[in-house]
Structure formats: structure tokens, C-alpha cells
Amino acid sequence: MSIKILSVDDEVDLELLLSQHFRRKIRSGEYEFFFAHNGLEALQVLVKNPEISIILSDINMPEMDGLTLLARVNEMRNPAMKCIMVSAYGDMDNIRQAMNGGAFDFATKPIDLDDLDKTIEKAIEQINYIRSSMKEHSQLVNIQNDLSVAREIQQGILPHCFRLKMELADNVDIFASMLAAKDVGGDLYDFFPIDDTHFGFTIADVSGKGIPAAIFMSVSRTMIKANGVRGIPSNECLREVNNLLCEESLNSMFVTTFYGVYDLESGCIEYTNAGHNHPYILHADGTVEQLVTSRNLVLGAMEGISFKSDTMQLQPGDALVMYTDGVTEAENSTHGQFGEPALEDTLRACKGESSQHIVEAINTNVKQFAGDADQFDDITQLVIRRLK
Q1: Model confidence pLDDT, tens digit, residues 259-294
Q2: Shortest CA distance to 223 belongs to which of 192, 184, 181, 180?
Q3: Averaged pLDDT for residues 315-332
Q4: 85 Cβ neighbours under 8 A, 6+ residues apart
Q5: Which of 64, 116, 302, 346 is the most buried (most CB within 10 A)?
Q6: pTM for the complete prediction?
């Protein structure tokens, strides 16, 4: 693309001089010149040709001088447009004023055309650099917009209505939250009806962060739900999901997962822990117990493996508290971690409280602990409290 140059000077001879000196670059299409005889004409030319990137302007002109034109050009706020000011050698006061006013460079009359050629080439280097930076900035803005949309989509995928559409829904109190460390996260939580008296639930943490983790999270969630609604045992569900993820996994991604099936009539939970953090039981009397689970490999790491399931019993008033490691590994400014003891203390202070209160209390305490430190991992919780 040719560099478009506007020469603004009331001396008509300059037009012929420039056309002659730069004739080869003009013929090759490297340069394209436009001409005006004062600042007012120059502004009209700029309106019709906004792609002009270099203005070669005399300072002393009738109707509108070069300094006023420079001020008008500055108002256009186009960093890729450079002004080279021209004046007599003895007019240093105006030249200094032009440079202080934002001119890129200056030339003195009579113009040394070879020197002007070098000045224009230097301006072109700056213009190309600025255009490249502006293009990169535009791309970053587009990426940020895409990430914002992706965040909305991801948040829309996760359940936000925490009431089951089931006849025995009043038997439980469910609440969850996911606070992504970046625009999109790799954590997930979900729950869904299986039959009239059972529902499946899961919390998981994908390795890595950002867009790849978010995509893998979405795939994992879909696979867990698609297999879970079939009503198969939790270990069979995760075995099926693991084999599918191993077929699709890229860059050795994996996901730690806790998946369970809740019986709304009895409060009994059949569950499988695939490398995830051990949940806690907050008992009705305020005591806190970490749930013992069988050791299983994470999902997506090795195809064809089996998983061992366990069972537990929630009593009325008990709450099963599940979380990702973004909770316990949250750091403060001195790199200290929130840790399990602080989580247990938080839970003990939530005796008799709702699932929502428990989730919000943990989020509040983690945030207070971290202070001004950046959040480096997603913070996700899922709490199921048996009411009756």
C-alpha cells in the first residue's frame, strides 16, 4: 500500500519540485502526493483522503498557518499521521513551537530534498510501527470481547437455579458457585435428576486454565451428565467418561472429578472420587468430618481403567461440602495458603446454616485471607444439605 503524503505550501513551485524529486517512488506506487496551498485547503483534502499519513506543511501561510493546521491535526487523534513542519532557517521560534506542539520533525528552507527523503523514511518507520501496534491492540480487543462472550456462555452452562424439578426436591438444600481466575474457568459443578427419587451431582477441576480448560470442562460436563442420567452406578459413569475423554484428550489434559448419586428418600449417597479433593461433612451438631474416599485416578489420564465407588449416609441437617483446590490453595501476598484447617474452621462456624450461607462464608473468608493477592486458580464449591 502506497504512503500518501500531503504537501501544504503556498509556494506553487514546491509541487513541481517534489513531483520531480520523488518521481520514481510515485511511478512505482510507493508514494502518492496530494497538494494544498494553505491550512484550510489541507483540511478539506484530509477529509476526502483520510488515509493520508504524512503531512509536509509550511508554517507561514495565508488563511490558516501551519501551526494552526498542526493543532487541528492533533485534534483528529490519529497517532499514525505524522506532521513534518517547514520554515525558514531563522524561524526557530515557530519551529520550536511546532515541535512542542507534536510535530514529528522539521525541515528548513531551502529544502534539502535528500535530507527530506530520509526524514520521510524515518516517519514511515514510525507509522508502520504504530499501525502494527494498533492492529495488535485491535486484535486484543477482539479477543477480550470473545472471552467476555465465552464467559457468559460458560456461566450460562452452569446451573443457577438450585431447586431440583423433582417431587422430593424439598428434602435437600443445594447451592454452588464458580469464581473463575481468568475470563473463563476450568472448574465445573452440576446436578441433574435421574429418576423420581435420585439425582446426580458432580464437581470437577480441569488441569490448566483459560480457553483450553474451559472447552475441556464443557466436554467433561456434557459426558458426565449424558452418562449419569442413564442411572448407572457412579463408578461405571466415570469409567465411561474416562474412556471417552482419553479418546478426545489433547496436550495430556485431565480432570479431577467427584461424582455422586443422591437418594432423596434415604439421604444415602453412592459416589466415586476420581483424584479430587476430599469433601467435608458438616454435621447438624456443628462437627466437621472429612469424607474418606477410595483412591482413583483422574479422568482423561489412562484409558480402560476401573474406578471404585463408596457410599455414605447424610442425616437430616448434615451438609456435604465439595470444593476445588482453588479454595484451600488460595494464596495471600506472602504466599501462605488458606488451607484445610481454615476451611474446617469456616465450616464449624456455619452450624445449622443454609447451603448458600456456607458457600458465601467460604468465599468471603478466602477473599479476606487472600487480600490484594491475585487469584491464580478457579474457586468452586457445591454444597448439598439434607433437610429431611
Answers
A1: 999 999 999 999 999 999 999 999 999 999 999 899
A2: 192
A3: 95
A4: 57, 58, 59, 66, 70, 95, 98, 99, 103, 105, 106, 107
A5: 346
A6: 0.67
